[in-house]
């Protein structure tokens, strides 16, 4: 999927969501009655039940597309590719359909983290289409480099207890997108936390209480000055004995992308789950070596 660059006027700047305490504060894992346990959302029928979206029929159809004069309906009945969501772009937003829900993502031109990248779209589609192989239901999931929040939103809609992380200046837009797309829809309320790769990991995410079943990362290998810090961050969460699985999607852009992949393969047990040659996106699974 091509990446679009929206133009967002100053009046559309996003404000942080202030529910559940200060934005970016990490909440304890919801086990054994620990304080801060996330409760199932009681709306829309049984707690935690994902409701099918009543519009547009099956979610596997592309419903709309970009046109120079505005948003037009796309060709009817065209089957989606396995990695491709239903989506269209208009007025600084992108629209998707995943897990039976319409998702509206607001982008920004301020930073890399405020745009939707191909790896995130590909990993969202993989998770939706391979729920038997990779089930996120009732799993603790951490996303690093969450950006606009699309991947964390989809993980939440698939039943995961999600903590979305990124740099502090990304959190306002991230929180806005998460809140507007998950409220009343998800089993657990997603959390947002600040995370700078390689910095204060044990202080902010102590190993004795911050355990995750999955770590998600999409198109995080783009700023090559900080790849060592990225690897240190992944190693902190996916450590020996933790049984934490990394799911990483990346569009290959530079030779250094391949070098990072080699470093990852040398430190972790890795498996190529999916390769999309046309989009140059690969999806890996990795666990720490014992």
TrEMBL record:
GO terms for biological process: methylation. This is Protein-lysine methyltransferase METTL21C. GO terms for molecular function: methyltransferase activity. InterPro entries: Methyltransf_16, SAM-dependent_MTases_sf. Keywords: Methyltransferase, S-adenosyl-L-methionine, Transferase. Residues 1-79 are annotated as: Disordered.
